[in-house]
Specification:
Layout (H helix, E strand, L loop, with lengths): L14 E9 L10 E3 L5 E3 L2 E11 L2 E10 L7 H5 L5 H12 L3 E9 L9 H8 L7 E5 L3 H4 L6 E2 L6 E2 L15 E2 L1 H23 L8 E3 L2 E2 L20 E2 L5 H12 L1
Parallel strand pairs: 5-6, 7-10, 11-13
Antiparallel strand pairs: 1-4, 2-3, 4-5, 6-7, 8-9, 11-12
Helix pairs in contact: 2-5, 5-6
């Protein structure tokens, strides 16, 4: 069980511990982060985590990581499944690999809140609103460590839903960020194997001119080299990817994790 930090009156048990924490090089922050590839090769990943918060449960140090975004952002299961957005899972693996703390979650958090117009009679009710909800993925076993002020409904600070019976896995297959412990482990397992897969593709020389298309989004949208690229959407085909939601992800990932 988690215990409330009564020193500052916060609703959770975590407090900022480090910022701008690097990983990927020996002696830097979290240290080296390497994955084994075939042929004795190694994939070295490096980066910098905006913030790491820590808390304690039964004398064990827990950690969560935050990545600052100008505007609100959420974890995209379809992009994660296809290896298009691995940022938060990489952070989770980097902290876990360092052995410094037990990592239980990673979140995006906005630093810019949308300005809204309100009438004077509604102004008082808007003053106490918290507009910086963190969104990502976390081990739902520790939901009270994140928000021990929640009684029922959606957490004000994190995206998970507490049902009337005390079950923290409301809206599980759709929008909740809380993962059952076994599913949290599946995410980390899948992430590591996806990184190895991507690394193997790189060292094998796979450089096909075959940009992805996921829904209406394409890899060409923000490309700075369109004038030089040999891909022409009018005569070439995109690598059309299947859209995957949270529920589909675990159904498909089960085959990988199996």
């Amino acid at each position: 069980m988690c215990f409330r930090n009564s020193r500052d009156g916060s609703s959770g048990d975590f407090a900022p511990a480090e910022s701008e924490v690097g990983f990927g090089k020996a002696g830097e922050g979290l240290g080296e982060f390497r994955l084994k590839l075939s042929g004795g090769r190694k994939l070295v990943l490096s980066g910098k985590i905006d913030r790491i918060d820590v808390g304690k449960i039964d004398d064990e140090e827990l950690a969560i990581v935050f990545d600052y975004k100008r505007k609100g952002s959420s974890f995209k299961w379809n992009k994660f499944y296809h290896g298009l957005d691995m940022q938060l899972p990489i952070y989770l693996l980097a902290v876990r690999g360092s052995g410094s703390s037990k990592i239980i979650g990673a979140f995006y958090i906005p630093i810019e809140v949308k300005i809204e117009k309100v009438t004077l009679n509604k102004l008082e009710s808007q003053v106490g609103r918290f507009g910086y909800k963190a969104k990502g993925i976390f081990n739902g076993e520790f939901f009270q460590c994140l928000d021990n002020s929640i009684k029922q409904g959606w957490s004000e600070f994190y995206s998970f839903y507490l049902k009337k019976d005390g079950d923290q896995y409301g809206s599980y297959d759709t929008t909740s960020n809380a993962l059952k412990p076994e599913d949290f482990e599946k995410v980390l397992y899948f992430a590591e194997h996806k990184l190895v897969e991507l690394g193997e593709n790189i060292v094998s020389g796979k450089i096909d001119v075959y940009p992805y298309k996921l829904g209406s989004e394409t890899a060409c949208r923000y490309c700075e080299y369109k004038a030089l690229c040999r891909f022409d959407w009018q005569i070439n085909s995109y690598n059309t990817l299947v859209s995957v939601d949270k529920k589909n992800f675990f159904e498909r990932a089960a085959k990988t994790n199996g």
